[in-house]
Structures
1.
Amino acid sequence: MASYILKRLLVIPILLLVFSVVIFILIQAPPGDFMTTYSAILAGSGSSLDAEQLDAMRVSYGLDQPLHVQYLRWMEKLFHGDMGLSLLYMLPNKQLIGERLGLTVLLALFSFFLSWLIAIPAGIYTAVNKNSFGDYFFTVINYIGVAIPNFFLALLLMWFFYSKFGWNLVGLFSPEYEMAPWSWGKFVDLLKHIWLPGIVLALGGSARLTRVMRANLLDELGKPYMITGRAKGLSEWKLILKSPVRLALNPLVSTIGNYIPQLFSGSLVVATVMNLQNIGPLLLQALSMQDMYLSGSILLVYCLLAIVGTIISDLLLAWIDPRIRME
Amino acid sequence: MTENTTPVVQNTVVTLIEDSENNEVFLTSASEEKVSIASNWQLVWWRFRKNKLAVISLFLLIFVLTIILFPDFYANQPSEQTNARQAYIPIQKLHFIKDGRLDLWVEKVEGQRNPKTLGMEWVTVPDESVDVKFFGKGMKWEFLFWETDRHLFAAEDSSERVFLLGSDRMGRDQWSRLMYATRTSLTVGMVSVILSVFLGVVLGGISGYFGGTADMIIQRLIEVLNSVPYVPIWMAMTAALPRTWTSEQRFFAITVILSLLGWTTLGREVRGKFLSIREEDFVMSAELIGCSKARVIFKHMLPTFFSHIIATGTLSIPMMIVNETSLSFLGLGLRPPAISFGVMLQEAQNVQTMAKAPWLMIPGLVVVIAVLMFNLVGDGLRDAADPYSK
């Protein structure tokens, strides 16, 4: 087990190195740099900078250096835990991302647990009551849940609550807590807001999981050990929960590897629609303003989250399934 | 299985075959023969037909394909015809009966300023109507060398505008725009899937058939691509496209970008298939009689799992449509003047606008319907793809 974990962990730095090169090329690709955008904004607001001043700023930010020098400087700083300065906010990127990273992870984990909490009982129910009204009901819900883009679901729910109840469900905090330091009150306030984006993000995933769970469990329910169990006089629910459910959960765990990274990046569009203060809207802003080191750092964080998500699922799978450990 | 005969099926025979799969009914020799000489595609079609939902979706899909080909016929106004005085007109319901006779018409609406809010409110004018005609005349459009001015619906009086799905902020007709959006979004989805199927088959094929170093490299590539967070990377890629590009260039670039990350699932599947049939007798015999590598691959191996590829491809179209919609919605994908579902949904970005004009969300519903359709057809195809399995 230890060597397996070690092997998986060793992959992280290699993948990150590959990604950092790709990301650097991507954020360098748009024509012009932040200074071009910046002077365009200044021109739009009436003031302006002349070419000399812009060049002087380019030199001081190192934007005049050749690409590989810029990349190496970026990597060097990253190794020292310095993500550079956001030209847009004039704040360290680390601080900007750090403030929002917790909310990103929290939201993803919240919707992860929510989707499992919905999917497992729903999967068990539909498999046990196959072809009942409830089964068809969940099948329809699942088809729609898979088909609906999550940002559109967010729009629909926001519209519904606004036009029916007059609630404006935007953001993760009430205005009075937005800037406040963390406290019990803020945490409770967060719980009051996080349920809607949580449901929006969880629905698509739980629809898929319910289908997998139902199919797995149906395979198990027909097996002879079920008859043995019944013959021994076990109560039906005890029997179902004891063996087939546990076996049916195995393949479900293997879906986590795709699912967690999906949740992180899926929350991006929803977060923009619902104005949630996680790193999604920050990335969108950084990309459109060509704040390249901010967008580069956020992209790297997303990659890291995706890799860690995949590895956690691998480890979970190895933990519950001895066959994988033995390989 | 290479012959492309269209299935000519007699009903009686098929019923027997259908029954035979559920319970072991004794087959007459005639139907048995029918199965044994049927081409692969015929068998797939017989199985596919049993899934009623998939068949219905397939017909809907074929109908939607005609929208892709002739959006101008279904639209009745130019997509960019604006009129600030006709903004946010609600859905005008189409009526079919007038004075007890079959006749198409919509209610005439009139804008009135609300004295308190000064906002425009649209009220129906009683006893007045705008006549609508099937196959009426409207703007001119052409398809290849053929020019016409007929449309599915058009106002009888060509100076009137009919808003079957309401109008947006700039007074553009949503129905007409939706037709063009359907063309763009579905084309992006399908073309990017075709590209990723191509990539998947070529790279998966190389990896599975030749093995060795190529296999190792492609496998590592797939592993790396699988741990990429798609949405952020897609965003960065589309943000990197030059702003000066035309809509067509962006359209093409976005299709390529979507398929670059989308081929891995299929690549894995194709590799697995190649690995499993590489050792089969028919491949060896083809090699022994001196077939070229290309012939072995394309004539002998590929056709055995081609239906699987189509099924997987169909199932990945919805993902592509949703991704394009999300990217365009964020302003990173297609941009106006291009029209796609995402571009249209941009009009509905805040709650206040949505509460005022809920019909602006219709493009989102169309996305859901399109995705459902492709999913149902894909599910049906996947189940039917392996005609010899139970």
Note: Residues 184-221 of chain A form the longest helix (38 residues).
2.
Amino acid sequence: MTTAATETAAATREVKTTTCYMCACRCGIRVHLVNGEVRYIDGNPDHPLNKGVICAKGSSGIMKQYSPARLTRPLLRKAGSERGAGEFEAISWERAFALLEERLAKIRATDPKQFALFTGRDQMQALTGLFAKQFGTPNYAAHGGFCSVNMAAGMIYTIGGSFWEFGGPDLERAKLFVMMGTAEDHHSNPLKIAISKFKRDGGRFISINPVRTGYSAIADEWVPIRPGTDGALLLAIIHEIIAQGLYDRDFLVRYTNAPQLVNVDPEGARHGMFVRTEMDDADRSACFDPQDQLWWDRYDNRAVHTRSAGADPYLLGEFRLEDGTPVKPAFQLLEERVREYTPEWAAGITGVPVETIRRLAHEMGVTARDEKIELPIAWTDSWGVEHETVTGNPVAFHAMRGLAAHSNGFHTIRALAILMTLLGTIDRPGGFRHKAPFPRPIPPCAKTPKGPEGVQPDTPLGGMALGWPADPKDLFVDENGKPVRIDKGFSWEYPLSVHGLMHNVITNAWRGDPYRIDTLLVFMANMAWNSAMNTSEVRNMLNDRDENGEYRIPFLVVCDAFQSEMTAFADLVLPDTTYLERHDVMSMLDRPISEYDGPADSVRIPVVPPTGECKPFQEVLIELGSRLKLPAFVNSDGTRKYRDYPDFIVNHETEPGSGIGFLAGWRGKGGEKFMRGEPNPRQWEMYARNNCVFHYRLPPSYQYMRNWNQGYLEWAQRARIIRYGDPVLIHIYSEVLQKFRLAAQGRRPGRQPPEHLRERVATYFDPLPFYYEPLETRATDTVKYPLNAVTQRPMAMYHSWDSQNAWLRQIHTHNYLYVNPGTARNQGIHDGDWIWVESMWGKVRCMARYSEAVEPGTVWTWNAIGKAPGAWSLSPEANEARWGFLLNHLISEELPGADGTRVSNSDPVTGQAGWYDVRVRIYKATEDEPKETWPRFEPLEPYPGMGRVRRLWQAFVAGKREFK
Amino acid sequence: MTQLALVIDLNVCVGCHACVTSCKEWNTSGAAGYLSDDRPYDADPTGCFFNRVQTFEVGAFPDTQTVHFPKSCLHCEEPPCVPVCPTGASYKRAEDGIVLVDYDKCIGCKYCSWACPYGVRELDEHQKVMKKCTLCVDRIYDEKLPERERKPACVLACPTNARLYGDIHDPDSQVSQAIRENAGYQLMPEWGTHPANHYLPRRKTVIRIHADELQRADNPLKIDGKLPKPALKEPSLDDVTSW
């Protein structure tokens, strides 16, 4: 021990609270400062999300704050230099804004869709989405399309809610927990806290995953499965659950569309639609599901209105209406669908033994049935029935990208949501629980414009840039069925692409299909590296010129806090702040941090001043919105409305007098209201005094069964969380999908898909989940490329952000390709050998590492450890650049489509990027090849304003000017 | 006599490394700091950590266990690093059993790291002293901290609460109970070092479903007609015999 402690005893010490942003988890943190420098960041014990704990990333925030990769000045690409070379001159913010203002004003006055805004962050969409809509461009999305949109869409179109920000497993009460696929990062600390408590309480944890790492390591049972086959497993489990009668009949009857009668007249125009007694669905404009369907009553043996007094519907059977129409309950159609999906069938596809599949089904079904929870909480359902208790069937699931990032992921996730429903676990104790603002109607109300007329010069967009189609008429296409959006979102190619397709923006803009754009603004997304599929080609596209010598994407603006592979391609770089230097909100209009027991939102408040000339991206948008006179950002006389972002947050209302703003807490003039209320000038202070978080706990009777909870739905309606207070019945059978199918079959009036897409839409818009091989697998010679290759994110790193972090990079300095030893030996590959991994699309040289914790048909690696030389302020000789590698080079962003067309390498329903579908082969690199990764790229140099000093060693001691 | 220690529950450790960097963060600016990093942004970065997580696999596919194993100074009750120290810099505190290094006396000779069978001491090449876990001795007695926070940084950080902290000589402490009730064990006890830190092994929960649990009178298939009576016209004995 030295005298360090006494030396700093006289120093100024402060503790400030804010919200972490070392990943998307949004834990409450306390930042301890010495002489204004960050000395220690710990978890805030009074925060509802992380309750005082913190992870490896959060504990390394210091090294992010003081990273030499920080950008500190606006930068303009030097005239004559190539994109990607990273040659810049520093400019003033005024010049940067003037450049942007002039360019964007011209675009807005002529053709607003020439401006595209895509952001790597999807927890800032309330503001970025508002900006895009106000600008009038449809070309906006966050990264959901290449992350987990299948999870959001598959579940929201089924149960009106989803995993991650909007719901999750109730491990407090569960007895059996099944985690499928890689899901470690959503959500990180709350899930770790919950799994640990769950295990200590004696719960049983099963992990179904090709790889055993992370949370799977502590599972009671690991079920290895082949990637992309989870749908087959789930359908076989559903088969067994139904065959054994292990479904929760009462739950299905009361709360789902399982008993509703479907028209099965094969010739009729309403084939596959629910029989309804009132108006035709074409006239319905509201986004709730009117309750005018029929049941077949067991007692009177006839069709009756759903929920007729004294009636009880058949779930199985085949009936004929008085007019002769043949009908079946939706559940009967599900039973027929899974009849062929036997455990024996699934075993051959998944690699999971038949007896394991049966046992999984029995464990789930028997636990749900026999371990029932009864909470002494009285509640009233939407039909006025009073219940003395809340019942729970304690089987919980969790899944994220492992299931989602396949081109068959939507139906896999529909199958998961249906399984959860059959077990009777939705918004019940021990099962799945919603988080406000969910549940929402199926689908939610937000809609994009319906056609190109929604995009007009100098006018806000005539709808949302992203929405939830309920019907082909909700697609965003022109009269020929061609897409309006640059990413072809909401077109017939990817009708339910509710998060957009960020992974196709650059390719589409480069090719000019559907059109070219002028300016692409990318916030915090490494699209020239680990966030791009087909990375090498995308880099070429970014630097490619047309026949006139113009860049094919003429103006590229990147806002980021760090120098990256992407910033190198920018024409204009805007230096963002770190999370410790900014105001920010985790808004109810967006993806708040709500808990199962009620809505919660939170804020970031700066704890240190901005570094250099860094400016938060939020401020950039407010400034640009004001300069461009976007209506939401100016007064009626055109003058600037908001001083800055904090002012905007306090005073912006969704419409004048709505009382709804970005923050739900401490509204009203004196902070006496919440959810709705007038702007409160002291709102920020009140958040600051309350750990930067607002959390409203619903009364217990509103905390469960919220899809059908009269009290909750009325409360939510009054709080304007939802427009309609109607119950949200679970869609075992999806009429929404059937509408698209009927259109594609030419059996439904109105919009029709282009001919070359008819078969595709008719195939994939199946109202019941089905299993198909991922599209890429079908396009691949699987004899030549026998292995699946997948990635996952290490718990100590978040995307590409953390290789610039001196501490975290010591944990993961370079990555290996993990290979089952049996698989490796077949190729003569030894542990540690340099090998080639090759797909149809490209090849990468890397090092192999034996692992017994991966199923033999899969190889995998950590994502985003590999870096381009010199990027992220690492030396070109850094291990990340020499030995680390990206699998992205092997993954295509496109696949061959019908009739010589190209389609995105994505789920044909949602446009979810099929990251995990790639097939590869591996073989030894020859002895004379360099022992380094391939492909190689030219090293990047530091930009003006970046720390050029390369320290041979460093030691951080806070309060002493950063480094000893 | 008090013996403070960590008890690490491998049953819930997911290998997230929170303990690794929260330790580094607290201590680099703390009384046992600094914790230097060599080549922080170059090839082969390496630095001083008091606590590291090793990950290894046990068994062959598909019966594989992936084990995340956090390791720091075990604060042995018979610490081999102490008697070998030529200057008396390495010492064990009588009052709480924490093994510490007095940087003012340490000459960086590394005898202690050779003597330590667990490899948990790291020489700081720049300060030229031996460094190791102090159990955050500058936190645990700091009365300026709320009592809840008078714990090592790694313990407070750990998201799975896999790191328990307390006096293993107090039979009623949480750590003693955890060791007793969950078969807590020491690393390489055969060395006679009596490590104070213990590990709790993996524990496995199984659900056994008996075949007859699938046979239920209230099986909903009965209601929905999937276990129907045979149709009247199906073949029966009445078709083939008259008795």
Note: Residues 1-8 of chain A have pLDDT under 50 and may be disordered.
